[in-house]
Amino acid sequence: MTQITVIYFRNPCAKWNTTAITIAGNGIQGNTPTQLSYPQGIFIHDKTKRLFVSDSFNNRIQTFPLDRSTTTGTTVIPRILQGFKIYLDDDDDDFPTIYIAMNGASRVEKWIKGATHGIIIGDTCLDCTGVWLDKEKNVYMTERKRNRILKWSPVTNLTTIAAGETDQSGPRPDHLKDPEGIFVDKITNDLYIADLVNHRIQKWPKGAKEGVTVAGSSDGDPGSDAKSLDRPYGLRVDEETKSLYIVDLLNNRIQRWKHRATEGETIAGDNGEGSKSNQFHHPTDLDFDNEGNLYVSDAWNHRVQLFLLIDNEPCVGPSTTPVSTGSSLKSK
Length: 332
Fold this sequence. Notes:
Elements: E1 15-16, E2 21-24, E3 39-45, E4 50-55, E5 60-65, E6 74-77, E7 83-89, E8 97-102, E9 107-111, E10 119-121, E11 128-133, E12 139-143, E13 148-152, E14 159-163, E15 179-184, E16 191-195, E17 200-204, E18 212-216, E19 232-237, E20 244-248, E21 253-257, E22 265-269, E23 283-288, E24 294-298, E25 303-307, E26 309-311
Antiparallel strand pairs: 1-26, 2-25, 3-4, 4-5, 5-6, 7-8, 8-9, 9-10, 11-12, 12-13, 13-14, 15-16, 16-17, 17-18, 19-20, 20-21, 21-22, 23-24, 24-25
């Protein structure tokens, strides 16, 4: 009998090499197979060990091998209208179903294997920026222009409001302001929102009428210290430990907020705006492979950066909760 090895990763105190390796793009804006132009969204497909990139200004979806055998990209979806965040559904072993927040077309499109055009999902999504699926295959969409998150049901074909109040903005718990990236916890069904101009991450429990601030300022104030965020743009949530991993756009850094923490810690970047291997210029999204390595789309540097996991020891000390095995958290 063959033994299956499960790779655990991302203890809440894990560490990454802060000097990155460029895995996609060459740092020069362009439309050749080795170039990118403002990459917005990224998503790892574990089964094929490929990185999918929403190459926003080139209006295409590119893939790159995780083994770094080449930095030449393959176009899997051409001729889309300014795709932002993407979500990959693992139903197919060879090629995932891809959901694209189509900012330029104000909608979400679903692309299946072999398709020549996308299927429109749900109602109009004005200034559409984020997309995620829950375990029932409901599709969540960030409608930034109207300050709300929409939810489309494949069972009823109806689109409803999952978070925010239509056309109302501000730092109140029931409001959002220019929301961006989203994440749905498949264990709890909690919806997490990068509330961009309120400079915070909001958690909306299923069925709730308002959100709870779990990172950043509940007052909507920006900042650059450990307690603050400045335009959080994308995020991932460890569904077992509930640690948050946040793209802190204008601070050019990636922050980790442990569960119930009152401040975050920098795991990449925070070395000023720039193009060095330890710097970002407008990071927009992040993801992890099944070995725990961190990937970040570095948009104005027109590249995707890889930060290798170097320390996965459990947390110790009275202020932390020890985790003996880490988290195998790739439930996408």
